[in-house]
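Researcher: Here's a chain I'd like modeled. Treat it as a single chain, no partners, no ligands.
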Amino acid sequence: MTDAAPLSSHGEGFYDEVGGHETFARLVEVFYREVAADDVLRPMYPEADLAPAAERLRMFLEQYWGGPTTYGEQRGHPRLRLRHAPFHIDPDARDRWLVHMRTAVDALRLAPLHEATLWDYLERAAHAMVNTFEPSGIGPGRPAAAGSLPVRAAPTRHPRPEEKP
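Model: Modeled as a single isolated chain. Structure tokens:
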């Protein structure tokens, strides 16, 4: 997932074709505006200000799509799964991330092929980041603590015929 997008037939890469820095800055701006109001995703960002996370995402996406290599120069290999491992990313978090990213992608008003290309990558990346299927306990309608999660009773052991009761 870290290889840059191929060049188009007229020699430009995806990054340039969609508008370069301004397009990715807008994408990230809209996305983090949505995340800031999300009661499940917002707690995943330790900084009081979302600006550092937004800058990291913008730099990563720019580099991935053929723009400046600033992300790699400052942070090294993206290692997306490893960097996201400390966070509780269940299907609900993934789906919320995708809803907010969908809003951001729609705000760009890209050409259909560019929109589909970008969305395909974002959707695959979001699915790849899921690292648990356990509920987070964060957000509306969630259990308050792990202790309140339903627990399945241990199966009853029945004696084998050769065993005495």
